[in-house]
Every structure is written in C-alpha cells, then in structure tokens.
Amino acid sequence: MKHLFLPVCIYHRRRTPTLIAAMLVLITGTLPLFSQAEPVQPGDYSALPRQMSVEDHLFILGLSRAQAPVLRPEQQQIILTYEPARQSETVGYRNQIQYRSRGPRQVAVAFGHEQYRVLHAMDRSPEGVFFFFFDYEDSLLSEIRTLEYRFVVDGVWINDKNNPHQRRLLSGIQISQVPLPQAPLIPKETPVVSQTGPMSLREVTFLFEAPSGSLVYLSGTFNQWDPYLHRLKEIQPGVFRITLNLRPGTYFYYYVTGGRRIIDPLNPSMGADEEGIALSKLHIPQ
C-alpha cells in the first residue's frame, strides 16, 4: 500500500497559517489527529463571513441542527454546517446519573479547488452545530462550476451527510458538492485584472454596456489617449469587451461612443485631468 505525504495547513482567515506535516491515506480517507496544529476553539471568527449582518447573527443563533448547504447568491456565500453524532457518556454521582456530551475537539473543512491542502477551522453555534461561511468572488465562478469539499473531524476525513449532492471516487471516497451559480457576464466592478499574463504583464479586461451595434472605443494613458486604437468587441447584444496586457502601475481612461466620452460606470475609482474633467482610474499592483 502506497501512502501519499502532503503538507496540510490549518488556515484561519485572520491568523497566520500553521504548517504541519500530515499523512493523507487515499484508500481509507483518514488523517491522523493534527494535535500539533493550532486548535479549533469555539468563538474562532475565521469561520464567520467578511461582514456580519443581522441575518447572519440570527442564522447562527438559530442553528440547532445541521442542514444541507445554504446558497446565498446575492451575498456570494455558501454556509456549510456539521453536527456531531449525539453521543454521551454516563457520569454517576451517588444516586444521580448525569449525561455529558462527547463532541469532537477539532472540526475543519477542506475544498477541492485548494487541492484539500488547507483546513479551514469551523466555528460552533450556541447549540453545538459547527458552521462555516464560504465567501466567493466572481473570479471563482469563472474557474469552477461546482464547489467540492470534505469535513475533517478530529483528523478523520468525511463527507457532508446532509448534502444530497455527492461524487464517489474510484477508491470509494465520497466528495460533497455544491453547484455554483453562473458567473455574471459583467462583474460588479471593472476592469477585471488577472494575475496571469506574458512576462510581467497583467491581463486587464474592460467591459461596457451600450445599445447593440454601437461603436465603443477605449482611450487612456496606456494608448496615449488614442480614441480609435482599441475598439471593444460586442460579445453579446449590448455587452462590449476588450482585454489588454498592461504592466503594473496606475492608468487613467474613459470610453468613447457616439462621439461622447464616458467614464467607466462600474469603476468607483476616479481621477481628473489638468482641466478637472473626470477620468476613470485603474491601479495594477506589482
């Protein structure tokens, strides 16, 4: 039997990752107790969403039983829950019998798009149900169509029993799945800067909405304000796009259509030229 050794990281969103060596046994799907890692404690905010809302607080307070994954497309969130088996141990005090819950010490979730190398600590509700708010970006929707994950309970890898969507590997291991919504054709903010590009360049995608059949051009400091050098292509009725390879730095630009200059309505970052005319601003980090 061959074993595969992988470095596994316990990851807290607001803490420094602690790297531990762990043995992943592909045949049994188990992992030894990661007792040397940073323990998962109730009240660890790493499992909470980026911005807590009243709805989130009420959800956590009312979480008394584990359930199927909760998909929130508007918040771009998926809530995963895990409930340990209802086990107890009997403790006798003279003529009295007291029952004490025996819950897991550490519960985490690992995701397929991270190659299951990162264990995200789950938090616990007042009723003892573990939960994790998975926040995703539009960029993830363009990379994967299904979120795949497994729970790690005291070192043992298991699937989500409350999730009806499962994928079984040839080894017999079950992977829990959550179908993701389609990526929006136009993101909430533009331009979209990709980390990939030739040499030290970045791929920057500009998107603009205009009446179908319009001529839309992009003018900026990256093309010496030439109003006709970069024409956007209509990829769908009323949606225009162009992708440029740009070096890290700060740029200013606007769109030209129908003889008018229009700043990017989806870019909140703005600047102005010497005459005080508003311009859209783009910063590409190193």
From TrEMBL:
Q: Which SUPFAM superfamilies does the entry link to?
A: E set domains
Fetch the Gene3D superfamilies from UniProt: Immunoglobulins
InterPro entries in UniProt:
AMPK1_CBM, Ig-like_fold, Ig_E-set
Q: Domain AMP-activated protein kinase glycogen-binding, which positions?
A: 212-281
Which domain of life does the UniProt lineage start with? Bacteria
Q: What protein name applies here?
A: AMP-activated protein kinase glycogen-binding domain-containing protein
Q: Which organism is it from?
A: Spirochaeta lutea
